[in-house]
Amino acid sequence: MTELSEIQSVLKAALRQYKDFPTPGVLFEDIMPIFRSPKTFQMLIDALKIHIESSKEKPDVIVGLDARGFLFGPTLALQLGLPFVPVRKKGKLPGETYEARYIKEYGEDDFVMQKDAIAKGQKVIIVDDIIATGGSAAAAGSLVEQAGGITIEYVFLLELLFLKGREVLKAPIYTLLGDQA
Q1: CATH number of the domain that residue 108 is part of
Q2: Band of the pLDDT at 25, cuts 50, 70, 90?
Q3: Residues 68, 88, 153, 159: which is the catalytic one?
Q4: Has 53 been annotated as catalytic?
Q5: What sequence ranges are listed for the domain Phosphoribosyltransferase (predicted)?
Q6: Any idea what DSSP says for residue 35?
Q7: Which of 43, 74, 87, 106 has the most CB atoms within 10 Å of its CB?
Q8: Residue at 181 is within a domain
Q9: In sequence order, what are the beta bridge partners of 126?
Q10: Does 148 map to a domain?
């Protein structure tokens, strides 16, 4: 078994940064190279699975945010033997949905989740790639609350501490790769 610090080093080395994308002044953290290597992708899933399995409170559902939370959320849910629930941008899911608006670092948007996706009282872990301002994660938490679920943790690959996103979230936060400048 590879040490967590080794996994973190491999994952951090796989990241790429792009200045002024998608708008001037934004440093975009690109996680896509992680998925080009099956070994690196498996390390990501293993590290997150170990964290979740070692937590005292066990989830019933994994929720992933559109779009980069979809890259590893379903695989993580499958490895844990749990259902996966997508949180999508408005207009992307059929049927009755809950809706939550959020402000992000370069605009605002609406998230939706199907009303029958989470049962009342189910414990939920929300996963996404990066926590920045926390707006999209907080919106996902609102959707879980609207459904009657309980967010027990937010799980991210990395955090942009200077944007103070954790201050708007109502549950504990785990960040696999720590903070980025």
Answers
A1: 3.40.50.2020
A2: confident
A3: 68
A4: no
A5: 35-157
A6: G
A7: 87
A8: no
A9: 63, 154
A10: yes
